[in-house]
Amino acid sequence: MSTSISPAPAQPPAGRPYLPADYGVPASAEGALPWSFVEERMAAARNYWIVTVRPDGRPHAVPVWGAWLDNALYIEGSPQTRRSRNLAVNPAVVVHLESGDQVVILEGEAHPVGRPDPALGARLSAIFCAKYAWANYQPGPDAWDQDGLHVIRPHTVFAWSKFPADATRWRL
Fold first, then answer.
1. Got the DSSP string for the chain?
2. Under 8 Å CB-to-CB from 100, ≥6 apart: which residues?
3. Are 94 and 51 in contact (CB under 8 A)?
4. What is the pLDDT tens value at each position of the chain, 172 positions in all?
């Protein structure tokens, strides 16, 4: 089975996160971050922390490698990993980067990709090979012909670099 994923809109509209007034998040969108802040950090990140939900409701957090492509995060790993087994039961996922100063948090769903079409496989291979060359990780375009590749499509993204002044929320 070949899977082709269409990209999300290139520039989702920015807004402000809902927080109690005493947090000081501005009401207007003036000073909000551009979407490029998210794209640059997601593309450059080496490690992505993902949080999934175990079947008994307990959270599970783990760092993973991934590829940011077309407003989605592609992660890989054996279907036997705790994260993959969790996602098979409940696709809800939260992703955040390692920095507490240049913050990007994604809330969304992860779904198995199956066998990506050749063009997507080639794009993913190029990203993984360039990003993880230091670890001699060089997956080919057909590396995901079996199982183990998931796409995380965010529905809400939060980011900031000077909280609360530039705290920004996007809904995709």
1. -EE--PPPPSSPPEE-----GGG---SSSTTPPPHHHHHHHHHH-S-EEEEEE-TTS-EEEEEE-EEEETTEEEEE--TTSHHHHHHHH--EEEEE-S-SSSEEEEEEEEEE--EE-HHHHHHHHHHHHHHTGGGT----TTTTSSS-EEEEEEEEEEEESSTTTT-EEEE-
2. none
3. yes
4. 445 444 555 689 999 999 999 999 999 999 999 999 999 999 999 999 999 999 999 999 999 999 999 999 999 989 999 999 999 999 999 999 999 999 999 999 999 998 899 999 999 999 999 999 999 999 989 888 777 899 999 999 999 999 999 999 999 9
Position of tokens 């769903």?
Answer: 109
Q: Which residues contact 126 (CB under 8 A, 6 or more apart)?
A: none
Q: List CB contacts of 159: < 8 A, sequence separation 6 or more.
A: 33, 37, 38, 41, 103, 104, 105, 167, 168
Tell me the Cα Rg of the chain: 17
Scanning the structure block, which residue is given the tokens 């000073």? 31
Whether this model's pTM surpasses 0.70: yes
